[in-house]
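Example record

One chain of 243 residues, shown exactly as stored in the release files.
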Amino acid sequence: MTGQWERLGEAGGIEAYVHRPPGEVRGAVVVCSELYGVNAYVRGTCAELAAAGYVALAPDYYWRNARRTELGYSAEEREQGLVLMRALDRDELVADASAALAAARREAGERGVAFLGLSMGGHIAVRAATELRFELAAVFYPGWLLNRGFPLVGPVPPLETSARIAEGGAFLLGFRGELDHIIPAEEWEQAEQRLTEAKVPHDLVTYPGARHGFACADRPADYDPQSGADAWRRVYAALAEHL
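Predicted structure tokens for this chain:
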């Protein structure tokens, strides 16, 4: 099967790019994109998840300001993405994540649901875990977990309410590169401490020598195939365990 855009609710509301597996459904994954939108890399990620048996849904979180955004990785396109990201509102993101979760539950049947977050989408996935109930949040280099600076963060960064993740029941699997310019080592250590204190089941992994975006082959300056392959191995193991 191939992926396609579908409405998640009322006409004129949020859409998601949906890719379904050809055979048995092992669960559903909400894929939360980088600031570049639901681009070729995100759609390819959905296809890979579907090939492994998971219904993959990539919500268009920018829909209120720009429909079906798909940017490349040039400096100019990054600036376009930053403009769109700065317009995101925390409460609207939670509402959109809730709509995506409801659709994913319908697709998953008796199996579970995971949120997979990439950079900005990692933040969205962790925020969703503080407000919604699902089985797994797997996040690649998630930003602003313990600091403010963008409207999508709001007055309270998500890991300041780590106890709510524990209440929601999600296992949190996180990946960061040692040379990540957005997530310093100190912040990752603080995230580990907050999650441990709140008794959130989790595993935070740091890859030596890896940069922000290390798992994306479409970003050759940052891509680290060995680290990316190991992270994806861990993601699929977690999906098998928790969904």
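Notes: The longest strand covers residues 171-177.
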